[in-house]
Amino acid sequence: MNIPKIPLGEWIDSLVGWVTVTFSAFFSFLTSLIEGLLNIIIDVLSVGPPIVLICILGLLVTYTSRWPLGIFALISLLLIDNLGYWDSSIQTLAIVLLSGLLTITIGIPIGIWCAQRKTVQNIVTPILDFMQTMPAFVYLIPSILFFGIGIVPGIIASFIFAIAPTIRMTNLGIQEVPEDLIEAADAFGSSNSQKLFKVQLPLATPTIMAGINQSIMLALSMVVTASLVGAPGLGADVYRAVSQINVGQGFEAGLSIVFIAIILDRITQNLRKPAYEGILKRKIVFSILAVLVVVTAIVLVFLKDNTGNENANGIGAQTDYKIIGIEPGAGIMAQAKNSLTDYGLDDWKIVEGSSAAMVAELKKAIDNQKPIIVTGWSPHWMFQAFDLKYLDDPNNTFGGAEHINTIVRKGLEQDAPGAYTIFDQFSWNISDMEAVMVEVHKGMDPAEAAEKWVAANPDKVAEWTNGAQSGNGEPIKLVYVAWDTELASTNVIGTVLRQNGYDVTLSQVEVGPMFAGVANGSADAMVAAWLPSTHLEYYNTYKKDIVDLGPNLQGTKNGLVVPKYVEIDSIDDLK
């Protein structure tokens, strides 16, 4: 069909851009509110040594779900502490509790509204269908633009993803209240509010609690996804383990999530009918718990040091002492963390996330002319799109100029000699790569941008293919990380291989799986190894099982980057 493509994506981009600008004050207020609530929850959960909260949760699980589960909870939490994931668990628990609080506060009233108004139900139901079927990752995109990188977009995305069961089950529970009971309430002259609070909600409570339980479990399932935009906790530990192919760390962090999920599930399932209510009334237990939480929160608020940093106008205070980073497995993140030690930047922290989230946060800051510090590297299209500068690195923490190497699996030369020759002769410069990156940034499909560059540079392509025998449909699998540089180079070399008779597949992975895939033979090649520092750890791990064909691009650079309007020039200026 020759029907022009409907520019739906452009319309959505325009809408999101308009919303971001128009409601920026509201988003700032909401960000401050959520961060404030989250900090209070974390502070309350962190009072005293870990054993205090471990004992409280163990007793709560025992009271609601009997002593065998209480012993299980106690042992599980002690194991989490022993493995070194207690702080991450507190952050995860706080995120889930706040998401659950938002879900209850907003979801139950909407569910009641749906039960009382058929029109509202008809409108809300398709919205809930959309929310439950839309991939959770999609919620992160506007969340970054609205709320910036960090924990707030993760909480908002978790809330949107998790609220549907609470709304649906509240609506269902109220609608399933027997009609004869409603008629009896009407006969006794009950008002609408009396019917709701005295008849419908008490009878619908089991169903509503089931919805809340499911919402909390869904919020917990989002912790790993939320780590992509900088949310801390066990999700970030799992994400870091995946990117670094650290099986042990991944299992430990994942097991910690499982323990927390079981504990929360059992508590929320049995809140209405605790196992030992006959011994101690639930109103007494929950009242004592509520008083402890409220009193602790009030005391902490009053005792909190609000003196702030002496230089409130310094770059640290203006950026909240945050350096916006990318994927936790990237070598530049290790360099950035080392820079904090090398330069004595004890107050600063590196925010983990993704390269896309970093660029989104950078664009947002530049649009508002606010200071920001990010981890940056060249070549990257952002240096052409924005007016940026590297901070001087007198301690040489980020090293000097790097190069990007081509690495192939062992045996490729025998299995596909023509492809091996092309890989071996593949070499271009920064301006070539940036030409492709800019086209992709403008909206062109990466494969189309690669084909355009290949068509415009036949002489250079001829140097790569010189002497290489044509393929006969042999499969070649390329792996790359989701960086703009690697997206450009992998698509270009993939296009050249296809034009020379090979069946090429491109697979996007994290850094660790990229190296591991070539080393174990599940992938044939990559053109994305940043050396001698960024990917040195992975290179040393797998160098005996790979074939290094040398640099395909020279003169790359890593460092901390700021917009040129930011009045600092060196990492030393962050002190």
UniProtKB/TrEMBL annotation:
It is a multi-pass membrane protein. It is found in: Cell membrane; Membrane. Gene3D superfamilies: Dipeptide-binding Protein, Domain 3, Glycine betaine-binding periplasmic protein, domain 2, MetI-like. Its main location: membrane. Keywords: Cell membrane, Membrane, Transmembrane, Transmembrane helix, Transport. The chain crosses the membrane at residues 15-33, 40-61, 67-86, 93-116, 136-164, 216-235, 247-264, 284-303. It comes from the Bacteria. Residues 89-268 form the ABC transmembrane type-1 domain. InterPro entries: ABC_Gly_betaine_transp_sub-bd (IPR007210), MetI-like (IPR000515), MetI-like_sf (IPR035906). In the N-terminal section; belongs to the binding-protein-dependent transport system permease family. This is Glycine betaine/proline transport system substrate-binding protein. It comes from Anoxybacillus andreesenii. The lineage of its organism: Bacteria, Bacillati, Bacillota, Bacilli, Bacillales.
